[in-house]
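Hi R.,

Here are the chain sequences for the assembly we discussed:
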Amino acid sequence: MTRRSTNSVTLHDVAAHAGVSPQTVSRAIRMPNLVSESTLAVVRTSIAETGYVPNLAASNLASNRSMTVAALVPAVSYSVFAETIHGLDAVLASKGYHLFIGSTDYDADREEELIRAFLGRRPDGIIVVGTEHTPAARAMLAGAKVPVVETWSWTDEPIDSLVGFSNREAITAVVDYVHSRGYRHPTFAGWLTGSDSRALDRRLAFEQRTRELYPGEPIRVVDSGADGISIAAGRALLDRALREHPETDVLLCASDIFATGALLEAQSRGIAVPDRLAICGFGDFELSRHLSPALTTVSTPNLEIGRRAGELLLSRMHGETAEPTSLDLGFSLAARDSA
Amino acid sequence: MTRRSTNSVTLHDVAAHAGVSPQTVSRAIRMPNLVSESTLAVVRTSIAETGYVPNLAASNLASNRSMTVAALVPAVSYSVFAETIHGLDAVLASKGYHLFIGSTDYDADREEELIRAFLGRRPDGIIVVGTEHTPAARAMLAGAKVPVVETWSWTDEPIDSLVGFSNREAITAVVDYVHSRGYRHPTFAGWLTGSDSRALDRRLAFEQRTRELYPGEPIRVVDSGADGISIAAGRALLDRALREHPETDVLLCASDIFATGALLEAQSRGIAVPDRLAICGFGDFELSRHLSPALTTVSTPNLEIGRRAGELLLSRMHGETAEPTSLDLGFSLAARDSA
DNA sequence: GTGAAAGCGCTAACAA
DNA sequence: TTGTTAGCGCTTTCAC
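And here is the predicted structure of the full complex:
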């Protein structure tokens, strides 16, 4: 009945080497101030000499804390969410927490699937982009018995805590801006095919504000469809906007990625930006300020969302903050040359 | 002596609910074909009704398999490595493996630290960018008793397996190309301050090939230094190159990010590209082909490295491939308009 | 300041 | 096909 052990050095081995009990070794690692100087020294020597690496799965099981956080983002590659992840990781890694990262590919069902899978890891906290989830996903998050932080959106009814900003207000501000600058025929360009609720928020906000500021004007929207989110899609969006709505004098893009593509396409066609056609982006990528004309866009707190979400998680996991907290990090309009 | 349990549903609870042994529930989950149809149905009902979520930490401890893979990359935000991670995750997630991702920030000491921390999670496999590590890091990787895949570089002495390409050959190909196109005064631009061995490889290859093809010509190199890797750094590099080496007629950038910045800076200064100054990049970002002039660059198998590394890990973790494997995925020169 | 005992929730080995 | 037993390596609780 003997089982194949992991045949790696255990707490037991270190204890034997040091001539103390396993318990003392465990204390020496986790609460060194409760152990005498002399035994501490012996234990540390033994750890080094045996090459001991604590097995965190065993620790997890015994202590019921995994020292992990699950993070769910729509995408990592070339996205603003990579910065959020970076901020989150920077805050959590310094406290010994490691991140499980999952890409939902902007798909609510895939998000649900990932939540189910990650729950088996018993994360000590969960961070998720967005406030729209499937009913099952929402139930799992609410019932997970660990702090949950939703991000990148805004709602009055978060599952638990919230760190984000209002996408609606941001687009409203953009429409206000282009209206004040005298543009008369705005067209919205985004990816509306996927189940990305932030994109939907932006589009709806566009429609509403356009109705308010441009009474009688038709609502113009173009969709990148199967092209998804890419520079090539942005180029195609410009083409679509110009063909379907030739009167367009300003293109409001749901992402700087689209805006970049649209700007490059306009330039290759000899369309003057912003004189013949103005372009606005969303996200304020580093590239955007370097383009010429520099892109007018919405600057979002990409990194800060990750940092603050991490800090919130930490304080909740350590029982310092009992209350769910909603944090509005806001946005700012970076008015530059393209509109 | 009773301990506070995790008070979540366990295998035991499900077994009681279903009127079978815990072992049978475990089998029903992991090897359903070894369980009769009827009991399987009962067990599945019980799982659903109790809302059971397996505790993977316990599973890990008992089976000595964590179903996790540790991935170490220099950076995630806006980097080619995000694509590699994406490819890796796509392959591994479908088999139930989850990823621990760590950012080394191009720092070998930080890499060592992360390896030490991740080893406590007992990953079933490790993937790491680069073949240069601190001696301690190398020793840990070699002694980890799990498959290790190094990536994005090339060496004749990998720790275990290798999926990458030769950065030296890639830069050599670029120098050959610009030489064949008649450029006479190449300057290399990169970030040489950090401990990024791929950047060093590229720089050394540049120096060697330049000596061979341009005898008597001085070796021109500019460093982004504290600016790191960004578009702004690329702009500064162009400035530096032109001031320190005004004879430069082609700028070989160690990344498309630099090349993009250099191109935009040249344009804002009214410097004709490629006539007055040609520019080459490295990495073939999506943006690069859309710039005008389109960027001549080295196309690297970003996504494919992740996929193949994942597949290699899978076959090694499942004991199908015993032998360490080295895979040269190569590169290609995307000759476009900027050089 | 240190140690002994019990058990976290699961799977491997064996038996039936 | 199913059940029993004995751990995996650690932390908690309690006793000294």
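Residues 167-299 of chain A form a domain with the Rossmann fold fold (CATH 3.40.50.2300). Residues 1-6, 10-12, 22-23, 26, 30, 54-64 of chain A lie near DNA strand D (CB under 10 Å from a C1').

Let me know if anything looks off.

Best,
T.
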